[in-house]
Amino acid sequence: MSAEQSDAQSWEEKKFLREMELRERELVVAELRLKSDNRRNLLIGALVPIIVALMTVLPSYLNSRNQQAMQRATFEANLIIESIKTGDPGQAAENLKFLTQSGLLTGQTASQIDEFLMLRKPGSGVGRVLPK
After folding, report:
1. CB-based contacts of 30: which residues, under 8 Å, 6+ apart?
2. What is the DSSP letter of 19?
3. Average pLDDT over every residue of 7-23
4. Angle between helices 107-119 and 89-101 (to 10 degrees)
């Protein structure tokens, strides 16, 4: 064998070894990419049912809350109407005061009634009173 053939063979061996190293690195990168994709798929697989559950539960919860608030407002309105069906403005004011102090009327309704009762002149009543 001549020196040129030996150099060519040595060069081919080096080339082959470099290509093998490169392919091994490509395999490692491909494996890492696969693991990353698997993690992403698992994460998506776990998050999708959670999101669907929230999309199902949240509207039901909000609807229930709104329905309770509406029922509470109707209940308070009925209490107010019944308390002023006395025919006597002074008694109607006392009834409204009782409803606010006992906690049967709450929130903005109670604060508005309390403010009205504080500003009204004693004996002037609550305005128009419903007959019995």
Report:
1. none
2. H
3. 87
4. 140
